[in-house]
Amino acid sequence: MAADLSRLLVVFNDELASYARQAEAMEAALLSPPSLLEDEAILQAMRELDALQSQRLVLQNRKQELQAERERLWNSYSLLLNKQEELRIAADVEEKAVVRYALPASAARRLSRPAWQNALLGGLLGVMLALGIAFVLELSDDKARSHEDLRSAAHAPYLGGLPLASTLPEEESAAPPGVRFVDAVRFLRAEIDRAQPQPRSLLVASFLPGEGKSTVAHHLAQVAAASGRPTLLVDANLRSPALHLLCGCHNNAGLAEVLLGEARLAEALQQTATPGLHLLSAGQNRARALDRLAAAGMGEVVAALGEAADRVIIDTPALHRCADALALSAWSDAALLVITPGSTPVDAVQACAEGLDGGAGRFLGVVMNRIPPQDLNVFGDPAIEIRGLRRWLGLVLPPPLARRITRV
Predict the structure, then answer these.
(1) Does an H or E element contain 9, and which?
(2) Which pLDDT tens digit goes with each residue over 319-348?
(3) What is the dihedral of CA 7, 12, 17, 21, to 10 degrees?
(4) How far is it, in rounded angstroms, from Cα 331 to Cα 301?
(5) What is the pTM of this model?
(6) Strand pairing of 270-271 and 277-280?
C-alpha cells in the first residue's frame, strides 16, 4: 500500500510540473508585445492561466494529504511489525516452557524422617541461635546493669540498690512492696553512716538526667529525719529544680537568693511535712547564681547548714550536661552516684566516680535505682545474672524457667 501511494505521488508531481510549464509559456506569451496578439486571445489566455493556477493549488493540497496519509500508514505498518515480533518471541518462550517429556515415577530410595524429628531439630537450632545472638549483644553492651559490672569494669564501690517505687510510705504498716522499699532506703542510709569519718554533708549526683537522683536524695533525707536526726535538704540543681515539688513547698526564695545576698539563710529554710526535715529550695534567680556554686560563698552556706543539722543532703544537676556537681563536691564531705541499670555506660560511671572523689576519698559508691523487685535481695543488691540472658531466654522458655536458669 505504501508503494502504491509513492507511485501516485510521482504521477501527481509530473502533472504539477506539466501544468507549471504551460503556465510559464502562457505567462511569457502575455508578456510579449500587445501588437502580436488580439485582445480576445489575451483574455482567453488569462482565463486559462487562472484555471491552471487553481488546479495547481488543488493538486498541491491533494499532495499534502497523500503525504500525511502515507506517513500514517507507514507508522501503522511499523507498529504491526513490532507486534508481530513480540508475538513471535512470546510464542517461542511458551513453546520452550512446555514440558515435552515426562519421567516415569519411581519408588523413593530412602524414607523421609518423621515430622517430630524436624520440629525438635528446628527448636534446638532456634534456641542455639537465640543464645548466640544474646551473647553477641551482651558482649557489645557497655551499660552498667549489675553491681558486678560496677566492681569489675567500673572499679566503683557499690552502696546498694532501690526497688522500683514512686513514693516512700509514711507508715510501717504499708503494703509489703512499700515496706521493702523503706528497708532498702534504710539499708542505704546505714551504709552511708558506716563511712569513717561520718559525713555531715552528702552530695547526690547522677550521670544522666531522669535517673531518680532527686527522689533518692528526698528519700534519704526522710529516713534520716525519721531516725531523729535534724536533716537539711538542699536543692543545688539550679538548672532543673525538683525538690520543692517532692516536698510540697514553694520556690520563692532559696539557695540562689542566699548566694546572691538577697535573702538570709534562716529565712530561706522551709519546714517540710516530715518532722525534723527542712528544705532549702533552688529559688527564683537561678541563672544569676550559677557561677556562685563554685565560689567560696557556697562553701560557707554548706558549713553553716552543717552546724545547724546532723545531716545535709545536696541534690545536684546531672553530670552529663554540666560540671556543677563536680564543683559542689569540693564543699561536701561525701558523694554518691545514682544510676539506673542499663542506662549509664560503665566508662561514664568510672569517670564520674573519679571526678566526684577528687583524690580526697569523698566518693562513697554507686546506688542503683529502679531495680525490679524480683532482682533485689534482702541486702539491697541486684541478683547476679548473666546480663540480659533472661530476657532472650524468655522468648523461647517460660519466664519462671528462664529466671531459674539465669540466676546463680
Answers:
(1) helix 2-30
(2) 988 889 999 999 999 999 999 988 888 889
(3) 140
(4) 9
(5) 0.60
(6) antiparallel
